[in-house]
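hey so i finaly got around to running the thing on Aminotransferase from Streptococcus varani. pasting the sequence first so u can double check i didnt mess up the copy paste, my clipboard has been acting weird all day
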Amino acid sequence: MDLNQRFNKQLDRIEVSMIRQFDQSISDIPGILKLTLGEPDFTIPEHVKNAAKAAIEANEGHYTGMAGLLELRQATSEFLKEKYNLSYAADQQILVTIGATEALSASLVGILEAGDTVLLPAPAYPGYEPIVNMVGADIVEIDTTGNDFVLTPDMLEAAILEQGDKLKAVILNYPANPTGVTYSRHQIKAFAQILKKYPIFVLSDEVYAELNYTEDSHVSIAEYLPEQTILIQSLSKSHAMTGWRIGMICSSPMIIRQLIKSHQYLVTAAATPMQFGAIEALKNGKDDALPMRDEYRVRRDYIIEKMTELGYHIIKPDGAFYIFAKIPADYNQDSFAFLQDFARKKAVAMIPGAAFGKYGEGYIRLSYAASMETIKEAMKRLKEYMEECKG
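ok and heres what it spat out for the 3d tokens, dont ask me to read them lol
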């Protein structure tokens, strides 16, 4: 019996993330310093951990409703109203998910059909395209490399018109992984004015919203485009709760009624004790991200200074915790090969720009969600490597 040809053919279009592939490929190097994954080095706030412990002790380990605990949805509603001026009814417009990844999966499975296209500014986080491909739809990238990774309204509208009726959705991610680009109120309003003219969904991944380094606060496109926007949020980055897997989908009542179907049959519901911890995070830890954000800013500035001295071109990120740096022209532009060699010789790991699509080749991404001690040593080793290669 040969089952090799009996799989879903769409699986042939996807592979395990190159980020994970690369991370695993160099993990056997003794003492390697990793600036690879978006994993905060901060610990989960004590008051959040205590709330989850209390829930476990109180035997809160049974199923919640599919949409999640109503108290958590209410806390989410209040948080988004206070932070981003968004109005979502807890009982109709918020769905608790197993992290942002499941939120994306439930949303894309819920809205896409075979033959649809989805627009995505690039280079971009590589987690979107595989989900789109698994349902037989296609990602169409908008190349932003010639504009310092910034999408413009003209670029957006031109891409929408080119796709025509095939276009089902636009994915926005800001602050962005891997570039750190984010958008002002003026820019977001301009995007909304264009998008509202077309019958398409706007999937807005704003999981790094609390890590905004500009003088202005984060502006969600859902403020201007509530009926079309599917807002993705998470506690992974804001509260260093990556392993707790708590995310949220926020949208219109009509959209949530549909997406709860895909959510239900993918996962049923998020883990109950983690939801109780999330209630505490949102109610009494509204500003838990601020000390982390301030420290990330210091790390960002240090890396930019050191790498610029070595000849890297860097667009200063305004959010998230990544540096996306152009490899100097006189070095190997194959980002995978460049970083494999660096890792083997200096025991430091970063992520090849090629992991973020064809427009990321020639770049490297490093995460500054690592300790300052690790970052300083990594920069020291990078300098040594660059000098040795040049010599």
